[in-house]
UniProtKB/TrEMBL annotation:
This is Uncharacterized protein. It comes from the Bacteria. Keywords: Membrane, Transmembrane, Transmembrane helix. The keyword Transmembrane applies. The chain crosses the membrane at residues 335-362, 383-410, 416-437, 458-479, 491-509, 543-562, 797-819, 840-873, 893-913. It comes from Streptomyces coryli.
Length: 933
């Protein structure tokens, strides 16, 4: 008991400091352990949402195969043979799902589509496509009649239509439809080998309002609502699978079978596939399933050949999920940098606060430790005692932090590795400082005749080591680039930069402070002289407070800078991706005249791009990969009066060159092309292009060019020539057959454009050679999706870590002020003894702390604003903003003002608290008789 009593008394004496150490370790360990799982869970939510959005019009994986039965080989007499064979293929596809994707990958859904057939329904020419869908609406969804059944011999094929189709075609259950014979002309298009025979309406269904991945109404929009295209109404109707043999007996020459496999990821499931390893695992699983499914469809063709003999085409596989996963990985890597920087700053400021607490604890034990050293105790022994004393509190803090992290993210395993490292560093702070302050070298240094060279050398060595570490970290980061997964070196760059800035500030900011002190000494008042003199003298002692403030302010400024830059850049990127229009359609193979009159479209601007090689007629030099873009300036000006490209094209009209002459094409060109003439080859024929004016930088970055040039790594006109001309100037060369078709797109403007209707119309007209989702983009959908969902989770983590860092920084500064309070108290007491008033004492404290605050603000601003340049290629904001070039940096001035006001409030709070404490203390409590002045 006698041995335990001193230890218990010591614990009771230092219980507030030990409790503070426990709370700090719990906070640091919990934040370090919970932040990565929180980011993973957020990434999982984003991944699940994006995959769900990608499946709005099709499933994640779609296997498709077209079958062409022979003309002289009849279908089997039993209609259920074909259905059972298709079901067997679907079952084989379901069994090929990888083990780790059995839950997320759903069962294949079979769709069978027949070629379009013509009919005149209600006096309207109608193009009708018959469709079998395994997920067709059931009987409860029918508002009239029933679902179609397999026809008997000689009976017409039964069809079911939606309520919208019923109203548009004026149909009712029992109505008969006579289709056209094969090869009959329909709306300018020949429908060959299509069904020719009677149809009868068996029922009318209502499509469900709720839409999931690859819902029937999204995959087949014409099934829900018919559209007018090509001079005829386009519509789809449901049939029974047993109607397929009858369709082949009556003219149908082929059918296409689709097996759509949806990918449904919950947030918990998606969290398994986060990070580089998780995304790679998901991509590998989908790729393996695609290969195995394609092979099984090929092998199982013999089953369908027995039911529908003849020729079968090679299977086609579409994958909607893999591009989404890859794009998310590239964006998330950049967004996660913000979270990692904020977490590293929290750890650094937290450890700095632990050091301040350790200094307080060591100072409280300074006299007893010196007495024990004088009685023969060793510095190592004292340090071991302190380590054993603080170990239970450190272990309790680590356990509490890990427990809290587990409660915050119960569905994701916490990562305890870095939490243990941070807790160990915090635990070793008190023993390390105890050993340092009680060492023989330290005691000899405190002797009256001890020199100061060795401490100066040590300080210079430490400062040089800090600067060297910061430079080495930045150079190494630029040389090796980023790595997959957590990157401690990258996360530590802001902290290293803050350390380097603090080292420079400690050396520099006392110089102007001392100069101001000399100026203040010429005046009558003593407040400025004393305060500035002490501020310049105590600058090295403020290193820890400066580090805390610079790190906190620098991380906050950098986070606000990136967020504001990405927010502003997204507006530019959105304009660039959509061409500044409300909808853009790329990859046109036809004129798309029907789309000009689509519902909600107010303006339509066709744009054509040509990639060619230019040969200068002035120098004879060749310029490769040139872009020639043709647009109608009148249509563009009507749709977008503020268009820089439309203004640039006015130079053609001003020169009288708006429509071109012969096969000469006038154009306005990027820098270095004005006044020159070029020849280029189209279809082996030389065409002359004359540049009449220079294209300004704003016109070269007109959003009009975005959908054509967004795949380029460099801004338009920087590495290859960009020429802009009038569509009328290209017309003569086109009529002469000298200009081949280029990359055509259509910009559509209108606030009331319905994406679903326009997407269905594009599918019905078949004007694009790409998939509709790849070719058609809407401003509203691009605004709702994209990098914003990636940036928001990182911003939330940064905000939480930033708030915790600010609280710890405030605590560290207050504790640091408490450490130096006795010295300042004695100074104030002496000044009060000389007649200083309380107001003068408060002014003295404020002026004394002001230089450190201004230095912290300058250092924080320097770190935050310089980090984008310091990180270099590791920070690629183009991925988040979606801009053609690196977005211009935008500073969040509101955040800067808030940080400055907060720091001033901190100084005011410290001064008020210290002044109030000094008033309560008497001079006798501060000054002692015989104490050195």
């Amino acid at each position: 008991m006698t041995r335990r009593a001193p230890a218990l008394r010591e614990i009771r004496t230092e219980l507030p400091l030990l409790a503070g150490l426990l709370v700090l370790i719990a906070l640091l360990a919990g934040g370090t352990a919970a932040a990565p799982p929180l980011l993973d869970r957020a990434e999982g939510r984003v991944l699940a949402a994006r995959i769900g959005e990608a499946q709005e019009s099709d499933a994640a994986v779609r296997f498709s195969r077209t079958f062409r039965p022979g003309l002289d080989l009849p279908m089997p007499e039993r209609p259920d043979v074909l259905a059972s064979d298709l079901e067997l293929i679907g079952g084989n596809l379901a069994r090929q799902r990888p083990q780790n994707l059995v839950g997320p990958l759903g069962l294949p859904v079979t769709h069978i589509g027949l070629p379009e057939t013509g009919a005149r329904i209600g006096g309207r020419l109608t193009s009708l496509r018959l469709l079998y869908a395994q997920d067709a609406p059931r009987d409860p969804a029918y508002v009239a009649g029933r679902a179609p059944r397999a026809p008997k011999a000689g009976e017409p094929i039964e069809i079911a239509v939606s309520t919208h189709t019923r109203d548009a075609l004026r149909l009712r259950p029992g109505a008969r439809i006579r289709t056209n014979a094969p090869d009959q002309h329909l709306g300018g298009v020949y429908r060959r080998h299509s069904y020719s025979g009677p149809l009868v309406v068996s029922g009318v269904f209502r499509t469900p309002e709720a839409r999931g991945p690859a819902a029937l109404g999204s995959v087949h929009p014409l099934l829900e609502r018919p559209l007018r295209a090509g001079g005829a109404l386009q519509a789809e109707a449901l049939i029974h699978v047993g109607a397929l043999p009858a369709a082949f007996d009556r003219g149908t020459m082929q059918f296409t079978a689709d097996w759509r496999v949806p990918l449904r990821l919950t947030a918990a499931q998606a969290a398994r596939f986060t990070g580089d390893d998780g995304r790679a695992e998901l991509i590998r699983g989908i790729a393996a399933y695609r290969q195995a499914g394609e092979q099984h469809i090929w092998d199982d063709a013999a089953l369908l050949n027995a039911s529908a003999p003849g020729q079968t085409l090679t299977p086609d596989v579409d994958d909607e999920a893999t591009p989404v996963i890859r794009a998310l990985g590239a964006e998330w890597e950049q967004a996660a940098l913000l979270g990692s920087f904020a977490l590293a700053s929290l750890a650094a400021v937290g450890l700095a606060t632990v050091v301040v607490i350790a200094r307080l604890a060591v100072r409280r034990r300074a006299v007893p430790d010196q007495l024990r050293r004088a009685r023969g105790a060793s510095a190592t022994g004292l340090a071991l005692e302190r380590a054993l004393l603080t170990l239970p509190f450190a272990a309790a803090g680590l356990g509490a932090g890990l427990l809290a992290a587990g409660l915050v993210v119960p569905d994701v395993p916490v990562r305890a590795g870095w939490a243990i490292v941070v807790a160990a560093l915090a635990w070793l702070a008190v023993p390390a400082l105890t050993a340092a302050t009680t060492s023989d070298r330290r005691l000899r240094r405190e002797e009256p005749d001890a020199g100061v060279r060795r401490p100066a050398r040590l300080r210079l060595t430490a400062e040089a080591a800090v600067l060297l570490a910061a430079v080495a970290g930045i150079v190494a980061l630029r040389v090796r680039g980023t790595t997959s997964g957590p990157d401690p070196q990258l996360a530590a760059v802001p902290v290293l930069a803050g350390l380097a800035v603090v080292v420079v500030l400690i050396r520099l900011y006392p110089l102007p402070v001392r100069a101001l002190a000399r100026l203040a000494g010429r005046g009558r008042g003593a407040v400025g002289l004393i305060a500035l003199a002490r501020a310049g003298k105590e600058a090295p002692a403020k290193a820890l407070a400066l580090l805390v403030l610079v790190t906190t302010l620098g991380t906050a400024v950098f986070t606000g800078l990136v967020s504001e830059t990405v927010t502003e850049g997204r507006r530019t990127g959105l304009e660039w991706r959509t061409g500044g229009a409300d909808a853009v359609l790329t990859g046109l193979q036809q004129s798309g005249a029907e789309l000009h009159r689509a519902p909600g479209v107010e303006h339509a601007v066709p744009v054509t791009g040509y990639s060619t090689e230019l040969i200068s007629m002035r120098t004879g030099l060749s310029r490769r990969s040139a872009d020639l873009v043709a647009v109608d300036p009148g249509r563009l000006a009507a749709a977008r009066p503020d268009s820089p490209a439309a203004r640039a094209l006015r130079a053609l009209d001003a020169a009288g060159e708006g429509r071109g002459k012969g096969v000469e094409i006038p154009a306005v060109g990027s820098a270095g092309t004005a006044g020159d003439s070029y020849t280029t080859g189209f279809k082996g024929t030389s065409v002359r292009i004359r540049v009449v004016a220079e294209l300004g930088a704003d016109a070269a970055r007109d959003p009009l060019l975005g959908p054509l040039l967004r795949g380029r790594s460099d801004p338009p006109g920087t590495t290859s020539p960009l020429l802009l001309t009038d569509t009328g100037a290209v017309a003569a060369a086109k009529r002469a057959g000298m200009v081949e078709p280029g990359d055509r797109m259509l910009l559509l403007y209108g606030e009331r454009i319905d994406p679903a209707r326009l997407r269905a119309l594009v599918m019905a007209t078949g004007v694009v050679g790409l998939k509709v989702d790849d070719a058609l983009h809407f401003r509203a959908e691009e605004t709702a999706a994209g990098p914003g969902d990636v940036l928001r989770p990182a911003q939330r983590v940064s905000a939480v870590c930033g708030a915790a860092t600010a609280v710890l920084a405030l605590l560290a500064v207050l504790l640091e002020l408490a450490l130096t309070a006795p010295e300042r108290g004695r100074t104030l007491a002496r000044l009060r003894l000389l007649g200083f008033s309380g107001r003068s004492a408060a002014a003295l404290g404020a002026v004394q702390l002001l230089p450190m605050a201004l230095a912290a603000v300058a250092g924080g601003l320097a770190v935050g604003l310089a980090l984008p340049a310091v990180l270099g290629p590791a920070l690629d904001l183009r991925r988040l903003a979606g801009t053609p070039a690196e977005p211009a940096l935008h500073t969040d001035y509101g955040l800067l003002a808030a940080l400055g006001c907060g720091l001033l409030a901190l100084i005011a709070l410290a001064v008020v608290a210290e002044t109030a404490a000094a008033r309560r203390r008497g001079l006798g409590a501060t000054l002692r008789v015989g104490e050195e002045s």
